[in-house]
Amino acid sequence: MPALPSGEGTKGTVFVPFPEALFNFPNLAILPFFPLQTRQGFLCVLCSFFFFLFPTPSYSAEQPDPLLLERAKQGNADAQYNLGFAYHWGDGVPEDYIQAYAWCNIAAANGDEGSKKKKTALAELMTKEQIALAEKLSREMVEANPKLIN
Length: 150
Prior knowledge:
Elements: H1 18-23, H2 36-53, H3 66-73, H4 77-89, H5 97-109, H6 113-125, H7 128-144
């Protein structure tokens, strides 16, 4: 079995501790000698280890993703549509058709075509009172933050 790459001035086989081997993955000379399935398995283990050490941040189910919310507040129509979508389906936030309609209404005012379709689909699920409340909410949101409309 071939030895792992040795450092400067060393001879023979060098045993690399597991964590060091993980972070020096491109330097592993032994890996090409294993079958493809073994190499793919090693990559899966490597990725799993990485996501174990650095998990993705979790957000409260009561508040949307802060980065998405910030982009939406700056007038980004795609972010506004995504917030409307999230509130429609309860994706990371409580399901709320009024909030969903309000965000889609603002995104539609910014020219987003998908938001216009989403607004129509939401309107079919809502009562006239809910639609009126959502339109009032979107007006209040724009009055409070004029940057919502570009």
